[in-house]
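Task card 7
Instruction: Convert sequence to structure tokens.
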Amino acid sequence: MFDTSSSEALALRATASGFDAVRGKLPVAGDPHRSPGSVTVARRHSELGTLIARGR
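Output:
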């Protein structure tokens, strides 16, 4: 079992919430109504990269 402080737990939850928010913006495979352009995809990748960099 891990001994995680309250502040670490809150930070992990915030990071997870950020991933959930970005995931909600990604298109669903096979959904013709949410076909993003390349600029949108690049922005989502950038958002994910920022979340990953903060988590380190």
